[in-house]
Amino acid sequence: MRILWVLGGMVLGSALTLIAGAVLWLHDTGPTRSWIEVRVENRTGQDVRELRIEHDHGQIVHRPLGKGDTVALAYPVRGESSYSLIAVLEDGRQLRGGAGYIESGARTREVLEPERVVSSDP
Fold first, then answer.
1. Dmax of the chain from CA atoms?
2. Region for residue 48 given its phi and psi (left: phi exceeds 0; alpha: psi -120 to 50; beta: otherwise)
3. Residues 83-101: what's their mean pLDDT?
4. Can you give the residue range of the structural domain that contains 91?
5. What number is the average pLDDT over the span 87-98?
6. 3-state DSSP call for residue 98?
7. Which terminus of the chain has a lower count of CB atoms within 10 Å, N or C?
């Protein structure tokens, strides 16, 4: 009788271990993803012809962004990421900025000033 209890405990432990492993594997590789939101404010005093966010798996392009306007752009990510922001002003100059490191589900704020990009948490 004692052998049956030990055998039953081993089978139950193995089954729970397999279920936990499957859940963790699905969590890491499953279709659900978190989004990263980048809010961009234009305080340059001129229109932005093109706003581009380049990230690990592609890019987002937004055209145009008027003086004083704000836009929120989002992209899906799993785990850690990074992005770079490129803004082409109406006079042809480019402003560059962006997060060197960002975690999934994060929100950032990028403020376009006449000579630079200021990054911060919202």
1. 86
2. beta
3. 92
4. 34-120
5. 95
6. coil
7. N
Regarding pTM above 0.85, the answer is no
- Tell me, yes or no, whether 20 and 38 share the same domain: no
Instruction: Show Cβ contacts of residue 1 under 8 Å, excluding neighbours closer than 6 positions.
Output: none
Q: Residue 48 pairs with which residues in a beta bridge?
A: 65, 89
Q: pLDDT of 50-63, one tens digit each?
A: 999 999 889 999 99
What confidence tens digit (pLDDT) does each residue in 18-75 have? 888 887 777 666 555 688 999 999 999 999 999 999 998 899 999 999 999 999 999 9
Give one DSSP letter per residue of 67-99, joined into a string: TT-EEEEEEEESSEE-EEEEEEETTS-EEEE--
Q: What is the C-alpha to C-alpha distance for residues 23 and 17, in angstroms, rounded to an integer?
A: 10
Judgement on whether residues 110 and 95 belong to the same structural domain of the protein: yes
Report how far residue 81's alpha carbon sits from residue 8's, in angstroms, rounded to the nearest whole number: 45
Tokens of 96: 């560059």
